Amino acid sequence: MGHKIYLSIILLLLGVLMLTLGQKKEVSIDSMITKNKQVIKISAISLAERIIENKLDYTLIDIRKEKAHAGIEIQGSLSMPIESIASKYKNLEKGKFILIIGNKEENMKKVSIFLSNKGYDSFIIDGGINAWKNKILNPIIPKDTDSEVTFSKYKYIRAISNYLQGKGDLKMPLIKRKRVILKRVKSASADGGC
Amino acid sequence: MSGPLVSSLELSVYTNYAIAFVLGLGFGFFLEQGGFGNSNKLARCFYFKDMVVIKVMFSAIIVAMIGIIFLSHFNLLNLDNIWINPTYIWPGIIGGLIMGVGFVIGGYCPGTGLVGLVTLKVDALFNILGALVGMAITAEIIPYIYKWWTGSLVGKRTTIPEYFDIKAGVVGFIIVIIALLLFAFSEYVEKRNNTQE
User: Fold this and answer.
1) CB-based contact A20 B169, cutoff 8 Å
2) Domains identified in chain A and CATH numbers
3) What is the ipTM of this complex?
4) Band of the pLDDT at A193, cuts 50, 70, 90?
5) Where are the alpha helices (H) located in chain B, listed in sequence order?
């Protein structure tokens, strides 16, 4: 009987000790291990399409500094610098997909792993803000020698880009393409032979 | 370095399987040695005659809980890397009822059923077969009730302290008190019912 009383007292003491523990600090996002961890990426174009379709099933968070966010602000995005994620993530709605955009892929991955650990469905934007700038806001004009498919893709993205920047509707822009006559390359004479 | 070691040491999938296999063998061995492969002993718990199941299970719960609370508080364990089942309210309640009724009728829960099967107990064999049939039926039914089944999701990683927004230590203290009361109650009813026999 004696040892049961001793064990009960130890247990009670441990219980009281637990009561005195303060609120545990969140694990710092910088310490998140990204090696061998998979995150799901979605393209900048998919993000643009979501914005245009006005889908309400996601929250886009921008993990860059607030100044940078103000510089290039994506429609409907929330500024949540990486340093503030640990204290602010509880404000994110759990039923929605969390899309993460930022400057560095490593930071986006860390935030994605952190949020996944907290029970959120999170995705990162492939290429981050640079992809948004180069593929959506300023898509590269194809060369006259590029294929018709490349031109069609460009027109589609240009229409999205114009719409998102308030420069027009979603109509495909008319882009005149110079007719290029490809010169037939004279085949080189066979080396060697008989 | 902090726990769980599986994640901080970045062990391969196969090493994880090997560790799980060894831990599983150990778990099964100690369950069997504790008499948990015997349905008569397990069922006596429901008649308040042999409360060893309650005592062992609650001992395991509070040891694990105290370990997790203290280790994670001192950053020796990263709680984020521990798997927590998503919380679905109605499936949890109904599944718990089905398992409880099955435990009373069959005398085994799934883990102890497998331990009983290893020691070649016929009742454990039928218990496990019944569980497999039940799982197959449930798997067939789920597509029809999927909306309801997933509709009561509380969160993918919801813990009691997070849900009630209280400190983990407070929850730990309450569980310790419940465990102590339960131990005292178990001792009392065991003594009462066994002296009556």
Assistant:
1) yes
2) 29-127 (3.40.250.10), 139-177 (no CATH)
3) 0.77
4) very low
5) 5-8, 13-33, 39-43, 52-73, 89-106, 110-118, 122-151, 160-164, 168-196
